[in-house]
Amino acid sequence: MSAVDKGVSYEQNGVSTILADNAVPIRLFGQHFTNQTVVRFVRDVKSRGADCDDMDATDAHPVSHIGPNGASAIIEISLSINQSEEFFFICVRENNTERRRKSYNVSWVVDMPWVHQGSDPWITIKVYERMLPLWLNIVFIVFLLLLSGLFAGLTLGLLALDRTDLKILANTGSEKERMYAKTILPLRTQGNYLLCSLVLGNVLINSSLTILLDDLTTGLLAVTFSTIGIVIFGEIIPQAFCSRHGLAIGAKTILITRLIMILTFPLSYVISVILDKVLGEEIGIVYNREKLKELVKITIEHNDLEADEVNIISGALELKKKTVEHIMTRLEDTFMLPLDGELDFETLNEIRKQGYSRIPIYDGERRNIVTILFTKDLMFVDPDDKIPLKTLAQFYNNPCYYVFSDTTLDIVFKEFKECNILKCHCFPTVKFTLKNVSAQKGHMAFVQKINTSCNERDPYCETTGLVTLEDVIEELIQAEIVDETDMWTDNRNKKRTKQHHTKDFSKFVEIRNSQKTIYISPQLALAAFQYLSTGVEPFRTAHISEGVLHRILKKNVLFKIRGTKDLKPCFLYESGKATDSFTLILEGRVEVNVGKEGLQYEAGPFSYFAVPALMLNEDTNFTPDYSVKATGDVVILRIRRPLYQAAVQATIMERSKKDENGKSIPHDSYIEKQIEDVLGKLEPEFSAETAGKILSELESSDDSVSSKAQSTTSTEA
């Protein structure tokens, strides 16, 4: 007896076993099988050939598929049992067998008796029932399927959590992320042990699941159901879910994971130890500078970092790769002063216009830098004194600091912070030596390079540029730092700032040099300009622009009156005498007599008189009710009405001319020419000769004027 299809198994002694109430085809081997052969099964044990008609038996089962010579046949049986398991034995007979008596020549059809085939193991059938009912078996299959999915998901989810990432989350994540990471981290540190436990548990569950499914179904149906169940519900869906939420799922199922690690300990721990020895200890992902910088950049769309923050992080990571030579300001682009120069107005104005707080001083050639000038050292310097720059340098003794061109920015940044830039290995040979150099530290250093290009001499250090703390910080934040005094956004590429509005005071040197009658200091010219444009109403910017006022001051409007000689007074204004001139006292003092009572007071620098003389019509002159006379040497600024009116007209022309965008054209080109034409018409009137006449008239006031004034005063008294 053997199985025809799936559903029959065999014990070691050859007994066939089948599941109760399960239809199973069985092939029988023997002799004389015919279409009339039927088989039934009994529970009683008898010897072969015994009669089993009266025994409790199952239904009769006809045979089919009879083999050649009747040596084999197939029957399909389904046996029921009353206990957990029972043994059945085979009884066989022939139906409708024809019997004949030769003596009487008579035949008839009869059924043959049932014959017991014996209790040999190979013809014995053991019938058993399932240990669990069908519904409970289905419940177990579903449960195992869930466990299979859980272990498959945890295998991917937990092992995808890098130890480095878990440590980061444990310290910087949200409250839940910190809790989850701290829960998982102890298990994740045992990476191979965790891996072996989860894989072994998953294999064990999948094997059990296959066996249970195989008991429920057979053939292609069992393969289909097991494949769909394990692959889709036990692999794909759990892994897809745990790949995104592995941290939360792993933390909430930590007890199950620990349990499976304990259950599989004898095998999984041994395998994990072997893996640790072969593969080495797992240390997690380690990011170098390039990887860390790229990580920040590619995740910018998903993190809460601003673009400036990303630039700062990238700049900080690149400090170690960049050298001073990449960011230094070249020596030829550096604003420097010669040691033999003077601190006059032009030099101080240039220093102010450049806007630097530290200025290198060189002796002879530009590479021979001997000291540094701090602009704060110029606070007590008077431009009129024209102090030699060498004297000031010797007084302050500001040392120079040096770094080599191949020094990386991280080292320079650290030295700038700790003020250790004074540490250097070679200094330039200089003719000028600073004495008693203090151990001050600074935030600017000169960059040196070993020059080996000359074959005729030994290698030597040469200064090629300078670097400041601001340069390093700009590389750190990946942006240019521009303050209110900067002329350039980039010293290397010479990009001028768009918002640089530093006034150029060198034009006041031109005012001094343009005067034919007197020379005044640029400081005094600047003070007069500022006072007129802000303190005297007719000269405010609402009436006269600064550019036109500057042109007025370049005319011959300054005069110096010598002190009185032989008690002869010099009157600037006489009471009752018409005038069309405005006067501003710049130096010296004057005596003013006011009104019929002759009240007297002294006026000093930046006192002004006859403002209405500028505002009246051309046919009307201003007649003062006071007299002004010089009491000593006096420097005055005198502007006549025609010049003032021409200035007002030039200002109107300047402001009326606009470009296509509605913006004023600068003070050159067309407007410059028109303004000069207007002011040029007055040039003969304000020439040097005319100014000399005015000065002569002021200084040649006669005694009759003085006596007449005294007589008038006496009469009125």
From TrEMBL:
Note the superkingdom of the native organism.
Answer: Eukaryota
Principal localisation: membrane
Which keywords does UniProt give here?
A: Membrane, Transmembrane, Transmembrane helix
Describe its membrane topology. Multi-pass membrane protein
Under PROSITE patterns, the record lists:
CNMP_BINDING_3, CNNM
Its Gene Ontology cellular component terms are:
plasma membrane
Give residue spans, biased composition: Polar residues: 708-717
Q: What is its subcellular localisation?
A: Membrane
Q: Name one Pfam family in it.
A: CNNM
- GO biological process: one example: magnesium ion homeostasis
List, for all copies, the residue spans of the domain called Cyclic nucleotide-binding.
572-645
**Which molecular-function annotations from GO does this UniProt entry contain?**
transmembrane transporter activity
Q: Where is this chain compositionally biased, Low complexity type?
A: 695-707
- What InterPro entries does the database record attribute to this sequence? ACDP (IPR045095), CBS_dom_sf (IPR046342), cNMP-bd_dom (IPR000595), cNMP-bd_dom_sf (IPR018490), CNNM (IPR002550), Ion_transp-like_CBS (IPR044751), RmlC-like_jellyroll (IPR014710)
Q: Which residue ranges does the record annotate as region Disordered?
A: 693-717
List where the protein spans the membrane.
134-161, 192-213, 219-242, 254-275
Q: Which residues form the CNNM transmembrane domain?
A: 130-309
Q: Which family does it belong to?
A: Belongs to the ACDP family.
Descriptive protein name: Metal transporter CNNM2
Naturally occurring in which organism (per UniProt): Orchesella cincta
